[in-house]
Design goal:
The structure is a single chain. This protein is of the alpha+beta class and about 140 residues long. The chain starts with a strand and ends in an 8-residue tail after the last helix. The chain has seven helices and four strands. The chain has a four-stranded antiparallel sheet. It binds adenosine-3',5'-cyclic-monophosphate (CMP). Adenosine-3',5'-cyclic-monophosphate (CMP) binds near residues 53, 92 and 113.
Length: about 140
């Protein structure tokens, strides 16, 4: 089925001017960027977006890292977009990411891992709504 997923190009990626290179990987995989904006997350936004990880030891550091530089938030659309995006991102830890994946190619560390992508249909819906009005998504 045609799905939508929420993607974030993280500060480590925007800082190194990798927006175009990462978008090229998405597009080559058949994912269409149907909404996109470059924003600076506030601390409250980063905390709320990652609230599911609030009890994890890395939460404070993760929130801090997400507000150092702008991020690019985007909606990717395509056949099986949620799983396809997770495949092209590769494993969370770049040391375990497969050859050719975004995290293998570009990530600096498990925290500065260049990209975020929704991990389920339910989370995709809520994460897209966190950043985008329906009128901003133009398939
Ligand atoms: P992301 O897919 O955005 O989801 C949670 C983020 O927490 C993850 O990518 C990493 O950036 C960060 N993180 C830092 N340490 C860990 C860890 N040990 N396990 C999982 N995620 C981590």
């Amino acid at each position: 089925a045609i799905e939508r997923t929420l993607s974030i190009l993280k500060p480590d990626a925007t800082r190194r001017n990798l927006t175009g290179k990462i978008n090229a990987v998405f597009e080559a995989a058949g994912l269409r960027i149907v909404a996109q904006k470059r924003i600076k997350l506030t601390e409250d936004q980063a905390k709320a977006f990652y609230a599911v990880h609030a009890e994890r030891p890395f939460y404070g550091s993760l929130v801090g890292s997400m507000i150092t530089e702008p991020v690019v938030v985007q909606v990717l659309q395509g056949e099986n977009a949620i799983l396809k995006n997770r495949e092209v991102m590769g494993a969370t830890n770049p040391a375990q990411a497969a050859e050719g994946t975004i995290r293998k190619l570009f990530a600096e560390s498990i925290e500065a891992n260049s990209v975020h992508g929704s991990d389920s249909a339910e989370n995709a819906r809520s994460e897209i709504a966190f950043f985008f009005a329906e009128t901003e998504i133009l398939p």
